[in-house]
């Protein structure tokens, strides 16, 4: 399933959301301009490495922030930024730009910590996985998805589904789309525990941790309730 757009119109210009997309794109252009070896070295230095994370090493803690703005491939970058483009503007609209930025960074940090805790607890600090750098905005964006799940459960996500070679466009309620997304992350995360932590090359527990931040903390960051122009009368969610 590939999301194309949602049906909720943002009433404010999502300056922070667009800014985050631009910064992530800029950082990736800088990464790719360095050459393969320097690219790998940068990910090693600024990515989250569970075995290296320690309060006694402030620079290692700082990677919880820097890793959120780095990506390992074009597909990694584009898929993340497209998801942020679809869902982030509405969450920023409800939170306000400053709160949204703080929320995004918090979700990114907690998602990284979740990955670190699961990796160290399950596999140990000396495992190869604990020495592998992890990068990407996926955890922070998962927090945005968790917030969207609470704020706009009855909105619709216009989704492209390919049936062999035939495209099928379907409107899926957001709570179903995002609920399925979280279930897929949780299932893959549990499977990863038996496949040395990374199932399909993805840090699933970072996604799970970020989504839970969105579910649990969205009310702390959301401004007073507002009314919106809905495309459908049953999208209203009274809080």
How would you describe the overall organization of this protein?
- The chain is mainly α.
- It has a single domain (2-222), classed as Up-down Bundle (Rhomboid-like fold), CATH 1.20.1540.
- 58% of the residues lie in helices and 9% in strands.
- The chain has helices spanning 15-32, 36-46, 58-66, 74-95, 97-123, 138-151, 174-192, 204-221, and strands spanning 2-6, 156-163, 166-173.
- The model has no long low-confidence stretch (mean pLDDT 88).
Key terms:
239 residues, mainly alpha, Rhomboid-like fold, three-stranded antiparallel β-sheet, 3 strands
Can you count the beta strands? 3
Number of domains: 1
**Could you spell the SSE succession in H and E letters?**
EHHHHHHEEHH
Number of helices: 8
Give the strand line-up of the largest sheet.
1-2-3
Roughly what percent helix?
A: 55-70%
Radius of gyration, rounded?
18 Å
What fraction of residues sit in β-strands? 5-15%
| Level-2 CATH architecture | Up-down Bundle
At the fourth level of CATH, the homologous superfamily is: Rhomboid-like
What kind of sheet is the major sheet?
3 strands, antiparallel
Q: State the CATH class.
A: Mainly Alpha
Global outline: globular
Q: Helix- and strand-based class?
A: mainly alpha
What name is given to the CATH topology? Answer: Rhomboid-like fold
Overall pLDDT: 88
Gap from first CA to last CA: 30 Å
Topology:
Blueprint (H helix, E strand, L loop, with lengths): L1 E5 L8 H18 L3 H11 L11 H9 L7 H22 L1 H27 L14 H14 L4 E8 L2 E8 H19 L11 H18 L18
Short overview:
This protein has 239 residues and is mainly α.
């Amino acid at each position: 399933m590939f999301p194309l757009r949602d049906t909720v119109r943002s009433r404010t210009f999502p300056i922070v959301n667009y800014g985050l997309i631009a910064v992530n794109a800029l950082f990736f252009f800088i990464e790719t301009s360095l050459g393969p070896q320097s690219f790998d070295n940068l990910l090693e230095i600024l990515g989250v490495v569970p075995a290296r994370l320690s309060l006694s090493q402030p620079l290692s803690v700082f990677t919880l922030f820097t890793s959120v703005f780095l990506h390992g491939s074009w597909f990694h970058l584009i898929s993340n930024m497209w998801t942020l483009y679809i869902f982030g503007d509405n969450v920023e609209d409800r939170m306000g730009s400053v709160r949204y930025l703080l929320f995004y960074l918090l979700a990114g940090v907690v998602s990284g910590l979740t990955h670190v805790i699961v990796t160290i607890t399950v596999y140990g600090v000396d495992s190869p996985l604990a020495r592998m750098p992890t990068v990407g905005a996926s955890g922070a964006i998962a927090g945005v998805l968790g917030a969207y799940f609470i704020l706009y459960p009855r909105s619709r996500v216009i989704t492209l589904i390919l049936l062999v070679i035939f495209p099928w466009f379907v409107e899926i309620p957001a709570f179903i789309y995002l609920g399925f997304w979280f279930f897929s992350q949780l299932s893959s995360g549990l499977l990863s525990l038996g496949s040395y932590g990374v199932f399909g090359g993805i840090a699933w527990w970072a996604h799970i941790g970020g989504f839970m931040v969105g579910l649990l903390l969205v009310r702390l960051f959301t401004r007073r309730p507002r009314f919106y122009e809905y495309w459908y009368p049953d999208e209203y969610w009274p809080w």
